[in-house]
# Entry
Amino acid sequence: MIALEERVMLKDDRGRVVVLDAGGKRLVETGEFASLEGLAWSPAGDEVWFTAARVGAESQLYALSLDGRVRPLYSAMGRLVLHDVAPDGTLLLERTEFRAETFFRRRGDTAERDLSWLDVSGVEGITADGSTVLLVESGEGGGPDYMSYLRRTDGSLPVKLGTGNGTSLSPDGKRVLVIPLRNPDHVEVVPAGPGEPRIVKIPGAVRHDRAGWLNDSRTIYVATRDREWKWTTWLVDAEGGEPRRLPLPAGRMLMFDAFSPDGTQFAAPCPEKRAVCVYDAARGDPRPVATASEEWYPVKWDAKGIYLRERGHHVPETIRRIDPRTGRVEVLFEVAPRDPAGALGIGRLVIADGGDAWAYSVLRRLSDLYVVSGLR
# Structure
């Protein structure tokens, strides 16, 4: 038998524990946990021990029996992560403090501004003028359905939008795209002020994984999965209308709002290589961007060019901009938290028009490792 962690969201540790037989048949599984990391077979091989949290990220140790029962084994203050179980029942257990912090900087500032709000503050969008960011709280403070906030980059108190996974803020700052956690078969277009959300649902899609705005603050792209778990990315008017399939290679999805200013093209990895290509939004026809390294990938496109990040999410990380016509590359800025202790890497990074302001999230983890005995 094989025990594994099955993820249910992109770039998120939500998931369930699944046990398969040697032929791949599902024998037993848990329900969905808000956070899941670490599992091992019990010494007798009759249970799978794992660390997970039903809400937030403060995990405890559970046991899954082969008849489907889940029982708690051990809990403590903080996040627990199981690394291994020895034949005599001794556990290698990590107790960790896990946080996500968001920082903002405008060109010319002498220091970054900390825009973090609660315990896991991830940035998901920024307005064209850099005045406002979209934050998503996915830890204890965000609750079981996560919570989306708008926050002015001057440090003003955040404004709560509501539950759900906010994925993008329109360049004009007037609307936010939110995907509900418990029912991800649609996207909600949520006004930043008074008004009712508008529902966007792609026919035939069972899960909406990602959604983002084009530069006109009206058109959106939506990445979906069908019943066979195949990805398709669509363009659709947020005010209504028929969705149009985006010509991406089979099995690919769009992850970043890297559309040309007029919306007729978009930047994404090339079909065969990791290099950067420019695609026609109607026909496809990917064209490699000269001088773009395979170690870069596109995250934004405005009148000044295509903005590129480094693969691997290093700390520090250098951000570049390339002219898609000439291939000219310029180094714009470097991102790194002032305190590097426990920094796992740079998470989401969003850039205002012109590259004059930006915000990014840092995943931070500080841990102690324990040997634990006596658990059954």
Summary: The chain has no helices and 31 strands.
